[in-house]
Specification:
single chain; 175 residues; 5-stranded mixed sheet; 5 helices; 5 strands; 21% strand; globular; Thiolase-like; Ketoacyl_synth_N
Length: 175
Amino acid sequence: MSHAVEIPELRVITDSHWPQPGDDALAGPPVLPGFIGSTFSPLVAVVADRCLQSLYGEVPAKQGEKVGIVLVSRTGDRASAEQVRQLVADGKRVGPLYFFQSVPNSVAGYVAARWGLHGPVVCLSPAGDARQAGFDQAALLIADGDADQVLVVLVEQGSQGDTAVALLVSGGEPS
């Protein structure tokens, strides 16, 4: 016998964006130690930090809450993929940091460890609406009891500039 899981409506608790007023979009986000040659991971880290700081202040987040992370990107880390492709095409050695950072879970794990988040980490690359895919996954994590809140991070690198959004969501009505 199967049991239906009720999918909650999501409520956005707080959010952050890149770029926002005061950001130097041409220079990119602040450097993130251990992640080289690409803005992808630094984008994830800066919007996650801003979003979580607005609620929790400094690290770590509130103990006892299960906060998951859903990282969503339709294109992934395009800059790192292109750098690795070029290195291989030129017959050059690919540095070990590229193997580490080319997996989106790496930066999601970095954010979780930095903030003391105790929830699942999920990375998605949907063909359709990235925001809806992230919200659908967050709703499932909350409905299953795996997370009380979910940090949904949407990041894209593009020829017109990089963008990132972090939204901390929970289920239920505003209190």
